[in-house]
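Supplementary Methods, section 5.1.

A reviewer requested that the exact input to the structure prediction be made available. We therefore reproduce it here, unchanged from the version used in the analyses.
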Amino acid sequence: MLQRTLKKYDISAASYLGLVLIHVFIGLAIYVFEGFSKLYYFAFLGFFLYLIVKNRNKNHEVLYACAYVIGSEVFVRMTGGALFYEAAKYEVMAFCMIGMLYEGFSKSGVGFFIYLLLLAPGILVSSETLGFDTNIRTAIAFNLSGPVTLGVAALYAYKKKVTRIQLSNIGLAAFLPLISTAFYLFLYTPNLRDVVTNTESNLAASGGFGPNQVSTLIGLGVFLVFSRLLFHSQNLLLLGVNIFLFALMGFRGLVTLSRGGIYTGLAMCMLLLFSVAVRSNAKIRGQLIIFVMIVSFAGFTTWLYSSYQTRGMLDLRYASKDGAGRSDKDISTGRFELFSTEIEAFKEHPFVGIGVGKNKEYREQETGIESASHNEISRMLAEHGILGIIALSILFLTPLIYRIKNRKNFYFLSFLAFWFLTINHSSMRLAAPAFLYALSLLDVQEVSAPGGNRR
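The structure derived from this sequence is encoded token-by-token as follows.
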């Protein structure tokens, strides 16, 4: 059944519901027997690798594989299934490189080659600046794995032709493991009223894992099921299932009390609606108003239930207040101070920066705060200097210039917003922002497109 998602055309309602049920079962099975997580992890990697090699990536199997990997990243991390912590980023890079072996890449994507080269001097600087007690290889790998993943994925995806249905099914591939994640979280903390006692991001409500990362991917899940509600709910059964999944994703994201992922997911939904509305006639816009009313009611109901389950802490959290109702002076939860130290590092070392991975050491020396960066933009400035500014300029300008000539991708603004907003509150701890940035560079066709792009 899973192979049907790799075809050019939209999957049937029965296939979609079957895939949803399979991933509900995966979430339940891993909760009962966590050792099953490793079997699941190696099974889906092997499955997609087999399909890529067997079909020589003729149906964009690489994009489906990468989508599934980024959707499952937090799930396999929290359940101990991943080979190592940063594995998802390396898997995305590996799949994209395999794809390039089969079909090459667009020559006009040379800007991403330059972007990757601009990251290299920071490695040389860090070899001189990092402390003796720092594991240089680990520090560099941790801080560069995300940016390099973005460069490789963008190089592979740039101007690759896909149809709207194919792009929608790529989104489905990312959404399916998030269903498993949501059901696992539900089983992990069925009674939230006992574990949510203040307005801080809640570890227990996040499956015992980082609330920020869980919220980020669940927020993505909210958007992905929202897009299925908008484009793929042709009957009452599908509408009901998708509204339930929308409410489930929203609930599990809200109760983490980590706001970044939910705000990002909401922004993506609004941008998708905007992209559809501006290209629609009056009749379609009228239908969109009804759609927004239905989804808003589902969202409002989900908020009320989430607030009840958290004893009102949810309302206080989103009002930037503590558990006693007092206003929190720092709505950034310490991120602004981290940002400020990185800007200071850039001012002191504007040309080549302080070196990859040095940021954490620099902050501890200057402020006594031992914390990794939460903002990829300020981290790039601090660690790469002016070269970081040039690299970021490439990332910002390339999709915007490409958008001038190609406006067919309804998801463009949403994907780009996910990348930008996520790297501003969670840096690049996940592979998802890198891959969704790459998806914004696809050449989306109205009609059937060839599976491979041999360039």
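Residues 123 and 153 are 21 Å apart (CA to CA). These observations are discussed further in the main text.
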